[in-house]
Design a protein that fits this description.
Order of helices and strands: HHHHHHHH
Helix content: over 70%
Distance between the termini: 24 Å
Number of strands: 0
Number of helices: 8
Structural class: mainly alpha
Radius of gyration: 16 Å
Length: 156
């Protein structure tokens, strides 16, 4: 890694830390939380934080939705964190209180279907969930998972 990459990595980590601290200081339903998640969009340093947000049923629903979307677009490269992200999305999918979060969690599971538990839950959701929008999101994720596998873009 050259000095430019080290500086960029350090700056990304500092930016993530600053935004995460701001996020944590805000009241529960503050829409700035959603904005912060979008600012952390492609910051790999923030992925563990985004996993924690999507997994927290007490967190602001729109922040959880944005976190699920980021985890779909930028799945962690680290196998352990990727596994944790898939399980966090699966937990959000099972949240009976948050239909919108469930819909986005279903759509976001495509990169995580190498985990047999995630794949089975996604399949069951696509066939039998009581919410037709969650079913549709699960069907989308299954199609996307197949596309990712065919192109080799699905990762580990």
């Amino acid at each position: 890694m050259n000095d430019t990459n080290l500086t960029t990595t350090t700056e990304a980590a500092e930016a993530a830390e600053r935004l995460i601290a701001e996020f944590r200081s805000l009241p529960p339903d503050n829409d700035r939380k959603r904005e912060i998640i979008t600012e952390l969009d492609d910051n790999a340093q923030a992925l563990p934080f985004l996993v924690s947000v999507v997994a927290d049923p007490g967190e602001y629903d729109l922040a959880r939705v944005e976190s699920a979307t980021v985890l779909r677009l930028w799945p962690p490269a680290d196998p352990a964190l990727r596994h944790e992200a898939g399980r966090a999305l699966l937990s959000a999918l099972r949240d009976p209180e948050e239909d919108l979060v469930r819909q986005y969690a279903a759509m976001s599971l495509a990169p995580y279907t190498a985990d047999p538990v995630v794949a089975a839950a996604l399949d069951a959701t696509a066939r039998a969930d009581e919410d037709p929008l969650v079913q549709s999101g699960a069907r989308f994720a299954i199609k996307e998972a197949h596309r990712l596998q065919e192109t080799g873009a699905g990762g580990p």
